[in-house]
Amino acid sequence: MKNIYLLTSLVVPLWLITGCAPQKEKEDYFTEYETIIKDEDFRAGITTGNFVRLSAGNTYYEFENNNKDTLLVMVHGFSVPSYIWDSTYNAALNRGYSVLRYDTYGRGFSDNPDTSYDLTLYTNQLKELLDTLQISSPINLLGLSDGGRTISAFAAQYPGRVKNLIYVDAAGFETIDDESNNSSIVSEQEIQSFIQSERYANMASGQLGDFYDSIPFRGWDKKYKKMMRFKGFVRALLSSSKNRPDLEKMHRKISESPISVFAIWGAHDTVVKLEDVRFNLQDRIPSVNLFVIPEAGHLPHMEQTSLFNTILFDQIIRNIN
Fold this sequence. Notes:
It is built from 14 helices and nine strands. The protein is of the alpha/beta class. Strand 2 and strand 3 (about 55-65) form a beta hairpin.
């Protein structure tokens, strides 16, 4: 292991300074689950970003090609799509870097194909997107939460295409002892049961649990409710949950490559607890540089934006590229 950095928060929420807390928006009491099909009419109504047809379906992406030498590619997590990277994406643009973010299959505006949502699907999507955009130079690859699995698989398979691998509260470092009983098939009964469950009804409001202090992020769950209206969303979530192999071999392969590896973690993350995965992270990739951000939960780039950006851009990107 190289270094572990414990940092001091630089961020004070604006409403604490002004003395005005954000007003609570009117609650949405009903969500029409799985009623919107992502067809051509749907895509025609999306006014941001772009779509490209890849082998498994249409992929929504946003790409600003500002700097030929430094490109950041951002992979989101389990269920919240690429808008979760808003603050980091905009900060990179303001610094003059090239940035690419996209919605993985089954999330956001990308297609929800009726297929197995496994690492092969996600690594192929990322590779095909990079190839389509003619991006061949090594990239700075960021993976948030479950996106950590995708970037691990991609870096292990295509080490020459990655310059820096940056995990943000990443999944995939847990120990999986037995995969033999896992079934990757998702039945219609499972889908309907999950849609009707209390757990699914609370998934949107549960997004606030990703924060150490959710008060500044009131209303964050409203965007998520819109995602729940897309046909095939639940199938994608259930299939992804059933397709989580042990990644130890991939991590050790990454460790043997010339890729520089970094990890940024919220000290109070209760979704992927650092203490639960710290040993595996440092054992599998001994050269990892670990940064721990205080007063931050699972989304440190949102809760401690200024500090996170200082680490990412000033201590990682600027010093390595």
